[in-house]
Amino acid sequence: MPVRTVNQLGEPCWIDLMTSDPARSIEFYTKLLGWRAVDTGAGSGRYTMFFHGDAAIAGLTAQERGNRDFWTTYLAIDSVDETVRAARAAGATVLVHPQTVGDQGRLAVLTDPAGAAVGVWQAAGHRGFHVDNEIGTPVWHELITRDFNATIAFYEEVFGWTPIPLSDTADFRYSTFGHDESMTGGVYDADAMLPAGVPAYWQVYLGVADVWASAKKVSELGGTVLREPWDSDFGTFAQVADAAGAAFLLGQVEASPRPSD
């Protein structure tokens, strides 16, 4: 499994789950994706790290029962304080003010001008996920927005994105973003699709070897299949929610070839 050694500035570098039922969520992801959960201790607020093999993949934080469970995507930046200042000047709202996480790094959580919550991470001891685009790891990050042009302009200005339009029609407006030719995510114009009152949001895709089999397993583990598996020009996907209600997508990927002996 190739190890990710660099997280490009402005791109997704970490995901974590806010859950009202940590035990149930841990059981769900360890059984669905083969993750290994490690409690980092009381000193870190009982933050749980998920590993795929030896590679750090994601995190989990407990929240009060009754709140909606959700995944947060974090973008890599070199200064939390400077990024927060730039984001506020460009119309963002600060949900979680800059804070230091031990010797691991600094974070903040923002709401972009269209209403989507996104985290920012200034790495120190923890640089982010160690592997991606593999089975059992994050494979895509997607921003669903109501104000496509303003959203693109915000992330260009604050995070240095260079979006590449994939489609620009009234029926399907979508841009990818990434570094050089390596795309890591996309922005979808969902203004005509989102129900009234639903804000913009980020969603994460997790890689599996067989979307159909994994969607069935989601149900067996107490989760919900929100959209049955479908095939597209870009792959096979399914939209699901875990056993505590946090939504994400499954994306089918091929296993990496093993190194030659």
Automatic annotation (TrEMBL):
<feature type="domain" description="VOC">
    <location>
        <begin position="137"/>
        <end position="253"/>
    </location>
</feature>
<dbReference type="InterPro" id="IPR004360">
    <property type="entry name" value="Glyas_Fos-R_dOase_dom"/>
</dbReference>
<dbReference type="Pfam" id="PF00903">
    <property type="entry name" value="Glyoxalase"/>
</dbReference>
<dbReference type="InterPro" id="IPR037523">
    <property type="entry name" value="VOC_core"/>
</dbReference>
<protein>
    <submittedName>
        <fullName>VOC family protein</fullName>
    </submittedName>
</protein>
<feature type="domain" description="VOC">
    <location>
        <begin position="11"/>
        <end position="123"/>
    </location>
</feature>
<dbReference type="InterPro" id="IPR029068">
    <property type="entry name" value="Glyas_Bleomycin-R_OHBP_Dase"/>
</dbReference>
<dbReference type="InterPro" id="IPR052164">
    <property type="entry name" value="Anthracycline_SecMetBiosynth"/>
</dbReference>
